[in-house]
Amino acid sequence: MARLEKVSVEDLRQILAEVDEADAAKRIMAAITYKEIDDLTQTDAAELYGFSSSWASKWFTRLERLADEPFEEVVYDKPREGRPSELSDKEHDQFVEALHDSPGEVRYDAPAWSVPLARHYLSEEFGVEYCERHVRRLISEAGLSWKTARPEFYKSDERAQEAWQEGFKKKRDNLDDEYTILTIDQTRQVLSTLIYAWFPEGERPSLPVTGAWDSIKLLGAVSDSRETFFLPCAENFNSDTTIRLLDALQTEFGKKICVILDNASYFTANAVQEFVEDTPIELCYLPRGSPELNPAEECWRQLDQELGNRLFDTLDELRDAALCALNRITVPDVFTYLCP
């Protein structure tokens, strides 16, 4: 009798979510029960759902085909009516060609192909319904592999940066002496981060890390007098946290502040614009893709060096270490960045 070694419980549950017949669902449940309960025979699993031992022998052997065939061909007693069961050779070639192009070429607003998107394309274009596991196999056979793309950040044009710097110099000259110039930015720190370090040649070093995604979030500011201000955030960055930061900066540096910041959505939000409307706060947005103009980035670089290659057990421990490290950083001169 087939042992179902090539078919996982996850595969079976995915297929169970796709079937639309009660009898087919019962057959899949029998297989899931067999896979999940130790020492349960296939005959016992079949009998739990009212099937015979002879049925079990045929059914579990049939299920082995799931490793190579669309589930519709296996779990149903007859082909589904009203839709094709599989791609024709011509349709398969068209699908492979589409996968090697950007999804935008077939009118999908996505930067790259995913299994759900490819599955949707097959359904919309050819009327063929495959489970995600089978679509994943088709994508792999088409010569694609699961990998992380290199980030390609938007890079501001040098002329745009120069124009911004000239404009900022004029704006600064028009501000009265009571204004404090501040640059702000944001960062996220996780419990463990690996960075480059020096190790003896010929050794293969290892460092303790955690796979947890827990993190602390910080908003920070650097003033024109080389003072700093850092605000931990419990929640994700949004317009409310930006407003709280601006309010805190006024308390710390005075009502008249000129704030230089990037174009993150939580900085440019309408709520932020409305907040500053009736205040003496001046907001100056850097050109897109210009982190090198923001001295607050240097604070985060030094923080990464302090916390990198260390494992923290709790967020409180990470937060305390981060705030202590920020008290020791060499504060950059904002005008070296803004007005070189």
UniProtKB/TrEMBL annotation:
Q: Where would one find coiled-coil regions in this protein?
A: none
Domain Tc1-like transposase DDE residues, every copy: 192-319
Q: Which SUPFAM superfamilies match?
A: Homeodomain-like, Ribonuclease H-like
Q: Which residues form the signal peptide?
A: none
Superkingdom as given in the UniProt entry = Archaea
Q: Which residues form the Winged helix-turn helix domain?
A: 111-166
Give GO terms: molecular function aspect only.
nucleic acid binding
NCBIfam families per UniProt? transpos_IS630
Q: Know the name of this protein?
A: ISHwa16-type transposase ISNamo15
Q: Please tell me the species this chain comes from.
A: Natronomonas moolapensis (strain DSM 18674 / CECT 7526 / JCM 14361 / 8.8.11)
